[in-house]
Write a structure and sequence with these properties.
By secondary structure, the chain is an all-alpha fold. A two-stranded antiparallel ribbon has the order 1-2. The radius of gyration is 19 Å and the shape is elongated.
Length: about 210
């Protein structure tokens, strides 16, 4: 690297933390630690942390030429933004709560398919990201099944609402821990490598990087 050459930053940590901690907050409500009625507060982090910051990270990834990261971050940003606006609609436009549940369930179906694609792509990357996407895949499935079958009596194919969301909450919580692993590796390893040392947090690459 020459003195005039600028070192590009890696926006992966911004994106992975934005989605991971938004998922963490949603999982806390889904697991039943607080009343589900309080989950309306998820609108704020879904709009800004999971929505806006993920979209910014996606733009940075495109500028870095990372199609995988840009596409993943942009689509997950779209999920959280749609989730937020649909819930705003319950209060502003008087949307029916059951219908909003069905919408989120159908979104979960769509993102199950997209996450499966990303998960397959991650087999050319590293184990940490692969596990992150695998648990996210399970999380979307566990949201899709109860929410797409939600009835007016508040029952679903996985039991009564909102208790039926607990499995998704537990798996989502585990997935948020994997995002912390990936994000921490990006941030901490970057500092160590700039100091000329090997990063302390392994991601376990599936294949050795090609030497330039």
């Amino acid at each position: 690297m020459t003195l005039t050459e600028k070192r590009k930053g890696d926006p992966t940590a911004v994106g992975i933390f934005s989605y991971g901690f938004t998922l963490f907050l949603l999982s806390v409500y889904a697991m039943g630690f607080y009343s589900w009625s309080e989950s309306i507060l998820m609108i704020a982090p879904a709009l800004f942390f999971g929505g806006l910051f993920l979209l910014i990270a996606a733009n940075w990834e495109y500028n870095n030429g990372n199609t995988f990261g840009a596409t993943a971050f942009a689509t997950y940003s779209a999920f959280f933004l749609t989730f937020a606006f649909a819930h705003i609609g319950i209060y502003v436009f008087k949307f029916n709560g059951i219908e909003v549940g069905h919408l989120v369930g159908l979104l979960a179906v769509a993102f199950t398919i997209m996450t499966l694609i990303y998960w397959i792509g991650s087999f050319k990357m590293n184990l940490a990201l692969n596990l992150t996407l695998l648990f996210l895949l399970f999380t979307f499935i566990l949201y899709a099944i109860p929410l797409t079958t939600l009835s007016s009596s508040m029952t679903t194919a996985m039991g009564a609402f909102p208790g039926c969301l607990k499995p998704a909450g537990y798996i989502g919580f585990i997935d948020s821990l994997f995002t912390m692993w990936v994000g921490a590796a990006v941030v901490i390893n970057d500092r160590w490598e700039m100091a000329g040392k090997k990063g302390p947090i392994p991601l376990f690459l599936f294949q050795k990087e090609k030497k330039q």
